[in-house]
Amino acid sequence: MNTQDNLKRHPGEETGQDLNVLALVCNWCTYTAADLAGVTRLKYPTQVKLIRFMCTGMIDVRYILRCFLEGADGVFIGGCHPGDCHYLSGNLKARVRIKGLRPVLEMAGIPEQRLRLSWIGASEGKKLQEELTGFTSEVRKLGPASFRQMHLV
Amino acid sequence: MNQNVRALVIGAGISGIRAALDLAEAGHSVLLTEKALAPGGLLLSLDRQFPDNHCGLCRILPGDITGRVWNACMRRGFGHPDIEYLPGVEVLDIQGTPGNLSALMNRRGLKVDPQKCTGCLECLKVCPVSQPYPLAPGLGQCKAVHPSAPHKPDNWLSINPDACTLCGKCMEVCPTGAIHAAEGNGPESMDKLSLAVLATGVEYFDPQLHNHLGCGHWPDAITSLDFERLISGVGPTRGVLRRPSDLGKVRKAAWIQCAGSRNLKLNADHCSGICCMIALKQALLAREKGMQCALFYMDLRTPGRNWQKYLNQAQQKGIRLIRCRPHSIVRDPGEDSLRIAYAPAPGEQRDENFDLIVFSVGRDPGYKLPAWAGQEGVIVTKGSERVLDIAGSLIAASAAAGRALRSFSDSCAQPGGEAYVSEHEHIHPSVLVVGGGPAGLSAALSLAEQKTQVVLVEKKDHLGGHAIKSMVPEVREQVLELRDKVQKHPEIEVLNEARLQSCTGPAGRFVARLLDARGHKREVKHGAAILACGTNPSRVETEDPRIINVFDLPEKLLSPDAPGNSSGRTVFILCSGTRREPADYCSKVCCQLALRQAIEIRRLNPESEVTIFYRDIIVQGDDEQLYTRARSDGVCFIPYLPEKPPVFQAGEKSVTVQGVDPYLKEDLQIEADRLILASGVIPESASDLARIFDIQSTEHGFLKEADVKYRPLDSVRAGIFVCGSGRNPVLAGEAVLEGEAAAQTALSWLARGRRNWPGSFVRVKTALCSLCAMCLQACPFKARYPDEHTGAMAVDALACQGCGACIAVCPNKASAWAGQEEEEMHELE
Ligand code: FES
C-alpha cells in the first residue's frame, strides 16, 4: 500500500482527526506511565485522549457504553497490573466487568477489538506507547465506528 | 498545631521520607536534607522491586493530608506542608545537646530553577562536558547538566558541581532563564534543632576497586546496581538488554552472589541480607525477556514467608541455581562472551559462557557511620547500618521517628485539634494491643510513652512471649526490661489470660469484646488496634528423649554434667518441617538458634562432635559471624537437597541419621547421641485474630499486610495494624523494632483522624439506597456499613480511600463522589 493510498483511506490521520480513541486510565499506574512517557519524550498517537480515573475498578460499564455512543471509535482501558491495584482489587473487578460487556458490545455491532484492557505499570512508559500505538492502528483498520458512519451520533 | 519540635532528617531516600512524614504527621516541623538533587535515593533507579515485581512508590504518600489523595507518584515529586525539603545539601557535622542541636551543612549544585525549567533540553546540546552518568556509571556518558533522576522529580535537571566547568553556555541558551549561577551555595549552619534522624542508607561495595574477579576489567561484568539501569525502561538501552561492551544481544546472563559480603579476605564478615532477593528479581525480569539465567550462590537467603515464595517462583520460571563460588572469569580470544570457570563439586571442573555477568553487591565492608552519628540527639535508622529491603527500611524509619518523638514526649504536647469524625462521633484515643511478646510490649510502651492509653491483651498468664527464654542474654534482658516498664506504666492496662471474642464498629470507634482471666465479659473501646501475635514452635512428634526440638533444647542439656553430653555426638537437621508444604516458608529463627547452640555445645564439651544438616544457612547481617564462628569451632556442616532430606531412626544405643555426602556423593551414616530438629514455627493464633478483626491472612495463616513493600504494618482495614512474627517470622530484636514502628504508624493515623477530617470521598444518597449491600462486598477497605440512624448504607470516612468501586456497583446510583454528580461524570468529554 503506498502513501497516497494511505492518505486517501485515512484523511485526517496526520492531524489526528480521523479517529476518536478514548483511554480511560487509572491514576496510579497508567496515568503515571503516560506522564513518564511524556517526560521521556515518547510519542503516542494524537488521536488518543486520556481520561483519568482513580482506579479501573470505578469504571462503570455505563461510562464505556457512553463513550461509544458519543462517538468513540475505540476505548482503551489501562490499569495497574493484577495484584498491584492501589485499591487491592479494582483492576480485577474491571476485568470481570469488561468480560461481561464484550458480548453486549458485539450485539450492538461494536466489534470487540474496539475495546482493549491492558495493564501498564507506572514505570512502563514504553509499554504505554506501544499499546496505544498498536491499539490505534488496530482501530484504524476497523475504520470509524459504525455509529459514527451512520451519523447517528 | 504544636510546632515546638524542629527535626532534621538527613537523607531523602525512602527511610528519610518515611521518618519525615511520621514526624510531620505527629505535628512537628521537619527539615529534610538530601545530598543528591532528587529525593528517592537508590529506589529511584529501580523500576520494579521484589517480592511482587511491581513498582508502587505512590503508596507511601500521605494520602489524606489535604483530604484528597496526592496525585503524584513519589518518583515525580514530594511534598508535605510541614516538611521543608532541601536538596543538594550535605550535612557535615552536628553538635550541641538534644533540643538544641546545630548542624553544619554544605549546599551545592542546584542551579536549574525547577519552576522555570520546561525540560526543553537545549542546555544538554551545548554543554561541552562529558562525565560518566552518575546513576549508572560504566553505562555511558552524560553532560554536566543531566536529569537528576531517571523519572521526573520535582527538580528535573541538575548540574553536577564537580563536573561543571562554569562555561556559562547553558545559561545563554536557556529560553526561560532557569539556569543561574550558584547562589547561596557553600557552608551554612542551622541552629535550634530539636533532634536529628540519620537516614542516609549504606554505601555499596565497589568490586572494581578490589578487582573482584576482574570486575572493571571486563565491561560486560557489571554490578547489580548497574544492571537495574540496564534493564530499566527509561535506562540507556530503553529496557532492551544489551551487552555494554558491543551492544550485542544478551542471551545468557549469570549472577554472582556475595560480592563484597561474606568474605573474610575483604574483612567482610557480614551478610548484606537482600542481595539474594535482588538477584532473584533481576533474574526473573531478565527471564521475562527470554534470557537464560544462572545464579551462583553459597546460601540462598530468603527468610520469612514472602521471600521463600519468591524463591519458589524463580525456580519454577527456570532460573538455574548453582551452589558454588566461581573462581575466575576470562574472555577467550575471538569470543564475545565471558567464560566463567567454576567447580560445582570437588574434582568437577566446568566452563560456561555468559553474555552478561552481574555481581550482587552489598554493604561496603569499609562503610562507617559519620562520627557525629554518635552525638546525643542524633537517631540513626537501622537502614543506615545495614542494607534493608523496602519494607525493612520503612519499618526502621518509623521506629526511629518514634524513638525521636518519645525522647521529646515530655516537653511537647500532643498535636492539638478536636478528635472527631463527624459531628456526633469521636475517635477513641486509646489503642488495643493484642499479644504480649516483644513486638506487643514495645508497641504498648512506645504508645504509652507518647501519652496514649493502651490496653494490652495477652492470651498467656505472663508477658514476654518466647523471647524471655532466649539464648541470647541481651535479648532476654531487653525483653524483661520492656516487660517491667510495661507493667509499671500508668497508661497501660495489661489483661493476662484474656480471650478476645469480637471486634466491631467502624474505624476509630472499634469495640472489642473479651473474656478476662476470671471469665468476666468486658468491652474495650479503642481507636486503633495493633495485632502483635507471635508464633509457636511446631511440635516434634516423638517420645524419644534423645530427639529434641531446637526450641526445647533445654538449657541444662547444654551444661557439662548433662547426661550423654561429655563427648557425645549431636546432629542438627535444619528445615526439618519448613520450607516445603504444608509449611512452605522460612521460620527465620531456627538457623541462628541452631548455630548458637552448636557453638555452645562445642564450647562446653570440646570433645563432642556436632554435625548440622542444612539446606541454606539463613542468617543475615552480623549474625553471619555466628556461622563463621561455628565453622571455625569445628562444627561440621553438610548441605542437603530438599528432595533428599536426611532420615533418622531411633535405635537402642543411638539415633541413626542417614544422609548423602554432597561431595563424595555417597551415603553417610551418623550414630548420634542426640538429634535436634529445627521444625520451624507456626502462627497459631494469627488466623483467629484475622477472623476477629476481619482482615486477611495468608495461606499459611500469617496476618496479611496491606502491601508487602510500602505498607508493611498496615492491614487493609483502616486503624488496624499488624506486626511481629504473626505477620512474618522475625527475630526478637526485629520484633521490638516492628512494634515501635507499628505504634508510630498507629499514632500517625490517630493524629490524622484528630485533625479536621474533610469527610469521605464518596457519599450515599440515602433516598436512593435500597440496602442491597452490593457496596459492602465491593469495598476493599470495609469502609461501608449499614447505618441504623438513616436506614441506608453509610461510608466510614476514616477508612474510605476513594477508589470508587462502590460507585460502579451501585445499581441505583445512590453512591456518588462527594461533590460530583453522575451527570458531571458524563460531561467529562
Ligand atoms: S489503582 Fe490502578 S487499577 Fe486500581
Describe this structure in words.
The complex is a heterodimer of chains A (153) and B (829). By secondary structure, chain A is of the alpha/beta class. Chain A has helices spanning 3-9, 30-39, 61-69, 90-107, 125-142, 146-149, and strands at residues 21-26, 48-53, 74-79, 115-119. Chain A has one domain (23-145): Rossmann fold, CATH 3.40.50. Chain A contains six helices and four strands. Chain A has a four-stranded parallel beta sheet, sandwiched between helices. In chain A, α2 packs across α5. The longest helix of chain A is centred in the middle third of the chain and has 18 residues, at 90-107. Chain A starts with a helix and ends with a helix. In chain B, the strands form 13 sheets. Chain B has a five-stranded parallel beta sheet, with helices on one face. A five-stranded parallel beta sheet of chain B has the order 12-19-13-14-15. Chain B folds into six domains: 1-108 and 184-202 and 367-415, FAD/NAD(P)-binding domain; 109-181, Alpha-Beta Plaits (2-Layer Sandwich); 212-361, 3-Layer(bba) Sandwich (FAD/NAD(P)-binding domain), CATH 3.50.50; 431-535 and 683-754, FAD/NAD(P)-binding domain, CATH 3.50.50; 538-680, FAD/NAD(P)-binding domain, CATH 3.50.50; 762-826, Alpha-Beta Plaits (2-Layer Sandwich), CATH 3.30.70.20. Chain B is α/β, with parallel strands linked by helices and 829 residues long. Classes of the chains: A alpha/beta (153), B alpha/beta (829). The interface between A and B is large, with 39 and 39 residues. Bound molecules: FE2/S2 (inorganic) cluster.
